[in-house]
Amino acid sequence: MSNYCSKEYCLEISGKGACFTRPEMKVERVSYDIITPSAARAIYQSIFWKPAIRWHITRIEVLNPIKWFSFRRNEIGSLMSHRTRGIYIEDNRQQKAALILKDVRYRIYAEMEFIPVKDRVKKETEEYRPDENPAKYYAMFERRAQKGQTFNQPYFGCREFAADFEYIENPIKGNGISEDRDLGYMLYDMDYTDEMNPQPMFFRAIMKHGVIEVPPVNSKEVLK
Known about the structure:
This protein is mainly beta and about 220 residues long. It has helices at about 35-45, 90, 135-145; strands spanning about 5-20, 30, 55-60, 65-75, 95-115, 165-170, 180-190, 200-205, 210-215.
């Protein structure tokens, strides 16, 4: 695949709560200590996404101290389908505990990769467009981010935790909180090479002076 990844963008994102659920916690929701690269990518995609681009998170700066709170909430224990013809809530209600992050704020850096038609998975369904080029998509993202435009409300892991964002036009990379921490293995993203059976990818997240450097997807630090 041709490499058109050349421009990095920065967003400062914040919210009152966040839950980046650990996949190993099967019943109760327990968040990772910080935002995951996949959750950060979803915020960029909520601002701008096209089949011709792919977002790569490169750096996470943790700006607020890591704080927690817990609560219990009601959830539905089954999914509705055409076979069930509806769900009786009183018979399917489950009360579950959740350990959630409080008052989060991050500065996220991401690169936009341009993917020409010839390199796309579903290239047989797309036609070549002579006006398609990286600069066009760079300008579209910048314009939308500056105006605060989104396709859907950005959120922190779960849709009930809305995320606010600010586009940083000329960012200066610096430190986050004054803390070093080994965050252990963290969900990196999902590998959709096999669309019928996507697989999780993980990486060892090391925070130094409040900063996590996110490795490239094809590096040896990303485990599949």
